[in-house]
Design a protein that fits this description.
With about 290 residues, the protein is of the alpha+beta class. The protein contains ten helices and eleven strands. The chain has two domains: about 160 residues, Regulatory protein AraC (Jelly Rolls); about 100 residues, Arc Repressor Mutant, subunit A (Orthogonal Bundle), CATH 1.10.10.60. The chain is globular.
Length: about 290
Amino acid sequence: MSARYELVDFGGDSRCKSWLAAWPVSPEIKWHYHPEFELNCVIKSEGWEHVGDGCRRFEPGVVTLLGTGVPHTWQNDLRQAPGVDTCQVLVIQFSRATFGDYFLDLPDNAALRHLLEESRRGLYLPPRAATRVRRLMEEMIGENNALRLARLLECLHLLHGADALTPLASVAYTPNAGDGRDARIAAIVAYVRDHLQDDIAQADIAARLEMTPQGFSRYFRAATGQTFVAFVNAVRVSAACERLINTSEAITDIAFCCGYNSLSNFNRQFLKHKNLSPRLYRAMHRGTPARRPA
């Protein structure tokens, strides 16, 4: 089964995303990968965690560090503890860019570099050894950018010093989540982000990759699990989030800069992806009062 590319939307001026993910308990395997690192901690549910060519039982309190491009998923047990009908996981996603251009290259950060290199196999920390890491991850939810980054570094420091930290994938495992498609997907993402104001036609992208429109459509859905049109809208909304937070541009201007020729379509797509209007999203991130529509 091929892993699907997952677009990570940092949704603003931060390059470290933290939230509590929740979904109904299901045995379905959603095998996916992304270029970002991921630190997660299971809060509720039990089952099997699949990482690369390895798998292991998970339970509440388990912490896992996943490297870039490592395919992974959780497969929930059908029979859960009484009252458990959802899987809840604390998720922290970040990239090398989160720390700046040279931070990881500093001699003082050799241990951190080693930890992130080892995370290509997925690193597992059992609940008995993960209490402090879990507490820091919980504190990161809703924290401001600087404190969230400080707590992330503390989490990684604790992981590096944990004797109970063990790899999930085999020593011979090399991430190849996209079956050779990673470079092509990365090129598509870069093109979309560089041409937000343009009319991005699927046929044009297909031609650039020397594929037929029909072949490109099948390829893209198989690689990402979504249509190309849906993907473009997700990237445009992500770019709009950054402008809403970091500029004072009018919402109409932001819509046009991000490729929407209709304000109503922009509002509709933004609400679909963020469950908020652009106006309310900006107000909430700036700490100014704004009323939700009734």
